[in-house]
């Protein structure tokens, strides 16, 4: 099972005995600053796991320690049960894809991909065959003789991926590889990287600050906050059952309201009462959260169906393609964000419309004061 910090929750995962990559109480300090603190993560063979979090949370520092580009202050890094933290980077059998591509501008695509094999002294006939196979894997065989400057951003990233894979590493490390691409290319490369990773069955660690990348690509996600592990689990675990307010707010949009827990299932917010099925096990001050797309908005006066209900007025309606984003002011001044799909039979509302908001107690997330 993936070990966690005290605030983290665990999804069913690998025991230390069957971990391909294990981070054991890993720490990294820069003077008095603790960049990574007591990090415990286990990665199964063939799994793609994301290190997700905002800038400065320690995710790239963690990747650099795994790769051997930065030394750990304390703790262990194990691959198949063997400690590697004292090994130099070139002896760790890992492929690394950088955010900046890091291609040699004076070399052809073919030579860029071959570079790692040349450094390892691979025989010429084997080298050419492996380079051709790697370029075919990323669909760039026809561009083997071009220079990096003659390629698009997406093509350059594929070259960087081929260069990392051609050495046939045990583990693939990806450091925000899509952040320099435009939105359409990011979507395309997400699919391509995931497809290649699954076809090869290669254990992979993917660093990103983009929640969509993590949710759509990875088997599990390790959310980091200020150098510590906040939660680890499947994308559904992280999104549907966030362990802390930080995770809930960082992974997806969410409404956040202060309230009071009256009993195991009732919350009071600004003199309203709402039901929840997520018992925090305590009374007193709590934070109630609801995701905008889990709120249904109907015309006021529509017969109720037993869900949580709040009345308000549309303060703003914003069209953003496939969804409409609404800001709804409730009668006591509290504002909730609501998202609905556009098109089809979806009803649209305008500024000033009086509406009723409804959501299920199952979708009412609650955190106690100590969360």
- Please identify the structural class as seen in this structure: alpha+beta
Strand order within the widest sheet?
A: 6-7-8-3-9-10
Mean pLDDT value: 90
Number of strands: 20
Q: In the CATH hierarchy, what is the superfamily of the largest domain?
A: P-loop containing nucleotide triphosphate hydrolases
Give the N-terminus to C-terminus distance in angstroms: 23 Å
CATH architectural category of the largest domain: 3-Layer(aba) Sandwich
Largest beta-sheet characterization: 6 strands, mixed
Number of domains: 2
> How many individual helices?
8
Q: What string, H for helix and E for strand, traces the elements in order?
A: EEEHEEEHHHEHEHEEHHEEEEEEEEEE
Strand content: 25-35%
Question: What do these coordinates show?
Answer:
Helices cover 23% and strands 34% of the residues. It is of the alpha+beta class and 371 residues long. It has two domains: 16-249, Rossmann fold (3-Layer(aba) Sandwich); 253-368, Beta Barrel (OB fold (Dihydrolipoamide Acetyltransferase, E2P)), CATH 2.40.50.100. The strands form four sheets. A six-stranded mixed β-sheet has the order 6-7-8-3-9-10, sandwiched between helices. A five-stranded antiparallel β-sheet has the order 13-12-11-14-20. A five-stranded antiparallel β-sheet has the order 15-19-16-17-18, with no helix packed on it. The radius of gyration is 24 Å and the shape is globular. It starts with 18 loop residues before the first strand and ends with a strand.
